[in-house]
Amino acid sequence: MKDLAVRLEALDADAGAALRVIAYFDSLTESRAGLQAIVRGAAVLAGVPARLDDAERRVHVRITPAGVSEASAEPADTGWPRTEIGARAVLALERTGEPGPVDAMILERAAGAARAVLDRTRGRAPAEDPALVELIVDAAAPLSVREVAARKLGLDGPVRAAARPAGPLVLPAGAAVPPGRIGLGPAVPVADLPASYAAARVALRFAADGTDDDPGPPVVAYESLGGLALLAAAPLPEAIPDLDALAHAMASAPWALATLQAFADTASLRAAATALRLHHSTLQDRIIHLEHLLGWPTRTTAGKLRLQIALALRRLARHP
Fold first, then answer.
1. Which of 157, 136, 186, 171 is nearest to 57 (CA)?
2. What is the DSSP letter of 123?
3. What pTM, to 2 d.p., does this model score?
4. β-pairing, 82-85 with 219-221?
5. Counting C-beta atoms within 10 Å of the first and last residue's C-beta, which end of the chain has fewer, N or C?
6. How many other C-beta atoms lie within 10 A of the C-beta of residue 24?
7. Where in the chain are all domains bearing CATH 3.30.450?
């Protein structure tokens, strides 16, 4: 499919781009990606913020072209290119004017992928009632009491606890994740929700605000951390030389933190340049300058690992 898209793009740029869109969202559907990944794909491919609003399920996902989840208090403009998903959900691109052929293809394919997710999780909205949710993730509460609370919340299958700055949440396994900074625990039977919530709280410490001061993924699953989760259990000393080096780089260049985060999160310099919307040669110059400021090479395997650990420690210090 990729080779065909390249050959077709040489003949017709729009046709080649449309084929890439089809392949991208087909891949997301096959991998059973969630709504965040689908809306993120629409935003990155279209180059404008994309949003999915499902009033019935109280699901609102908005992603910027940089791939960052960013909630908006403003309702979607009815003049934006949009497509309906079922009776209540709407996927829109925050762009004025008629959609071009590529935008139309993005909306069609992203809507199809999102519809599959919504059908898969239909009737499985996040459990609410904060008091009951706090009860069923409380390890000190008797199991019989937590089971009664779970029945009142309509929870009867595998579920996962989510930790947010505002408090705990319980999500049926496979349900869409609400926007915002969230740590996710593993999917477990209802009886094991306290353990899932403990893991979710660890994951929350690694989740970013998604701001200039704290770039990075706002949603972190505990399972994705692996051995990195052990860092959260270790007391942080007052002085960490690599954090001092990061602070020095950030003070010297306002783009330093976002650049280093994108470089640490991606597999290659070119992928980081795409995420930052920079030419790769510009990013390479920045990385060379930042290596001088940090005092260690970041383009070696060991140097990149050191950078990733430094960024993780910075986030743990920021979110104790």
1. 171
2. T
3. 0.59
4. unpaired
5. C
6. 20
7. 1-121
Size of the chain, expressed as the number of residues it contains? 320
C-alpha–C-alpha distance, residues 20 and 108, integer Å: 13
186, HSE (Cβ side, Cα atoms, 13 Å): 10
The pLDDT value given to residue 90: 87
**Burial class of 139 by CB neighbour count within 10 A (0 to 12, 13 to 18, 19+):** exposed
And the tokens for 204?
A: 């929350």
Coil/strand/helix, residue 266:
coil
Mean pLDDT (the chain) is 83
3-state DSSP assignment of residue 188: strand
Strand partners, 182: 219
Query: What is the location of CATH 1.10.10 in the chain?
Result: 235-318
- pLDDT tier at 63 (50, 70, 90 boundaries)? confident
Fold of 1-121: Beta-Lactamase (3.30.450)
pLDDT at 312 over 90: yes
Letter for the amino acid at 18?
A
Tokens of 53: 């609003």
Domain covering 235-318 in this structure, CATH number: 1.10.10
Mean per-residue pLDDT, 218-225: 92
Determine the Cα–Cα distance for residues 207 and 184; give it in Å rounded to an integer. Answer: 10
Beta-strand ranges (E) seen in the chain are 50-54, 59-63, 82-85, 89-93, 159-164, 167-172, 182-184, 219-221
Q: What is the C-alpha to C-alpha distance for residues 200 and 223, in angstroms, rounded to an integer?
A: 10
Gap between the Cα atoms of 271 and 18, Å rounded: 21
